[in-house]
Design a protein that fits this description.
The protein is mainly beta.
Length: 580
């Protein structure tokens, strides 16, 4: 406590701004009920955003907020060390050069995020001088909405301390560029007595560029790098991320997403993995040190690399000439090794040249369910592993996809060998697809990560700026209509009543295409072409400072309605509601 007080005095002496937030951001986000059963072993403290299951912006901060600017980069380590439970460190736009400093989070319930919410506008650069930029050693820590680049080792390292387990780490909307080793490393303590559980990596972009690839080899003398690398971790969720570029000309990189050495109940879903030597891995070795569990989830096995867990609705693609000409090429898309009880369901693995394995399962402790996966090459059993295979399609041509050679692995309308051809799947195991669309859309499930909808407006979104406003302020509402189906949504209708407690600004409605009206309410009619969004905006003034809800209803020519909501002066997060 004395050292904490000294650091707080330093913060105040440096003239940093300390203020109170008025929103409601959690220190972390409770895992979705769709996560594997049994993962809520460590209930998070404080208020949490249990409904945050897509990639919506985080709510505004709550509690004490420390405002930091790039000129104060040299004090950032002291700020982090001084933070108390419930504090948010809010970084304003610019580049923060650490020059060897590192950020040590050993107080639970601390958040560090950008003020703007734009992850590209706040860059923390280690210049390969800082070994690890963010070190997480406490529960309920959130890192969000910023870029971390050029750590000599790991940009983010989550490690259990020697005196307690830690839980509920949230890494959200983070861009990680050119790590010297693994981008996100997750470890138990050295004695293997305390563990980092129930974390989440979501809505992030992790990449290794050509320049970073050269540093990896110079730094390590090997290709010791990868995306997310978890050891002895239970209940992590890795979702909605883009991870790309993890390979070297020589040696073999680790996976884009890898959980092993006795990890358990990992959920890996809706990720796009591009041009990595290995895609998803559960387990790796045939023997070694590993976490064991009191309930013995895999009886009779002497060593287990990964217990249970689900890999679903992921796109894994390889098409880079440099990757294929490297020493090991594209090794495997989804790789199971001593993976007891793993479920690999509705994934798409495609490559422009042959891999060693599109999906493989290896070693005697592996007993997997492999269902409704679409691969352009092979399914491979190795070294005494066992699996139940149903509804998979192997050796599929790239012509099944919207742009197979370019990596868009959504199914083409002509993909008759995959559409409606999948095997039945138990309710709750994989009820939607990579875009969040419900399965099935037709008479049966589509094979692979994509479920074809001929017209689908469910990815449409409604936002408002600002999200907090006093009487007299002007609000701008923006509706973005997106069609992720394969056919144009003709005769689409938008109805948007002017919200209570506001007054419409005459003539403020505008649309990028179609016909917009403002006679009594905001209206729009027109066609939404696949992957060509239509934007409708209008403005109102606030009559009184109260919670303001605005609801829009979008109806397509099939009669399917999508309900979109936006709030001002409130903290709710809403996802679209489909009414069929």
């Amino acid at each position: 406590m004395e050292s904490k007080s000294v650091l707080l005095s330093l913060v105040l002496a440096l003239g940093l701004v300390w203020s109170l937030g008025d929103g409601a951001i959690p220190a972390t986000v409770t895992l979705s009920p769709r996560a594997v059963e049994g993962s809520a072993k460590h209930p998070p403290s404080g208020v949490h955003g249990a409904d945050l299951t897509a990639c919506d912006p985080l709510p505004p901060p709550a509690g004490s907020v420390v405002h930091v600017y790039p000129a104060q980069a040299s004090q950032l380590d002291a700020l982090v060390a001084a933070a108390a439970t419930g504090d948010t460190i809010l970084l304003h736009d610019g580049t923060y050069d650490l020059h060897g400093d590192y950020l040590w989070f050993d107080t639970p319930g601390v958040t560090m995020r950008s003020a703007s919410g734009n992850r590209e506008a706040v860059v923390i650069d280690g210049h390969y001088e800082t070994s690890e930029i963010v070190n997480v050693h406490a529960s309920d820590v959130t890192i969000a909405d910023l870029t971390l680049k050029r750590a000599r080792d790991h940009p983010i390292h989550v490690v259990a301390p020697d005196d307690a387990d830690i839980a509920n780490t949230l890494i959200y909307n983070v861009h990680i560029v050119d790590p010297g080793q693994q981008a996100i490393k997750i470890n138990q303590n050295g004695a293997m007595t305390h563990f980092p559980d129930d974390g989440q990596v979501a809505c992030s972009h992790i990449e290794l560029t050509d320049a970073g690839r050269q540093f990896v080899w110079q730094h390590n003398g090997s290709c010791y790098t990868g995306g997310v690398d978890g050891h002895q971790a239970w209940g992590w969720v890795i979702r909605d991320n883009l991870i790309e570029g993890f390979w070297c000309e020589e040696d073999l990189a680790e996976h884009a997403i890898h959980f092993w050495t006795g990890s358990r109940d990992t959920l890996i879903e809706r990720n796009v993995l591009r041009d990595n030597a290995r895609g998803v891995g559960f387990g790796l070795m045939s023997s070694g040190d590993a976490r064991v569990y009191d309930d013995g989830p895999c009886p009779g096995a002497s060593y287990v690399g990964h217990y249970d867990g689900i890999v679903r609705n992921n796109f894994v693609f390889a098409g880079h000439d440099g990757l294929f000409s490297s020493e090991y090429g594209f090794d495997c898309g989804i790789c199971l090794a001593q993976a007891c009880g793993a479920q690999v369901v509705h994934n798409t693995v495609a490559s422009t040249q042959s891999p060693f394995s599109s999906i493989e399962w290896r070693f005697a402790a592996t007993d997997a369910q492999i269902t409704n996966n679409l691969v352009t090459h092979n399914l491979r059993q190795r070294d005494g592993a066992s699996a139940t295979l149903e509804g998979n399609l192997a050796d599929a041509p790239l012509s099944l996809f919207v742009d197979g050679a370019g990596g868009d692995l959504h199914l083409a309308q002509s993909a008759s060998s995959a559409i409606d051809r999948g095997a039945p799947v138990d309710a709750g195991l994989c009820d939607d697809d990579i875009d969040g669309h419900s399965r099935p859309s037709g008479s049966g499930r589509d094979i692979g990560a994509d479920e074809v909808y001929f017209v689908d407006l469910s990815s449409s979104r409604k936002t408002v700026d600002p999200r907090r406003a006093a009487a007299g302020a002007t609000l701008t509402y923006t509706v973005v209509l997106r069609n992720t189906g394969v056919s144009s949504a003709t005769d689409t209708v938008l109805f948007d009543a002017v919200p209570a407690h506001t007054t419409y600004v005459p003539g403020s409605v505008h649309a990028t295409s179609g016909a917009a009206t403002d006679a009594g309410a905001i209206g729009w009619t027109g066609t939404v072409i696949p992957h060509e969004p239509v934007t409708v905006t209008f403005q109102v003034t606030v009559d009184e400072e109260v919670p303001i809800e605005n609801t829009a209803v979008v109806t397509d020519s099939y009669g399917t309605r999508t309900v979109l909501r936006a709030w001002v002066n409130a903290s709710q997060v809403y996802l679209p509601v489909l009414l069929r």
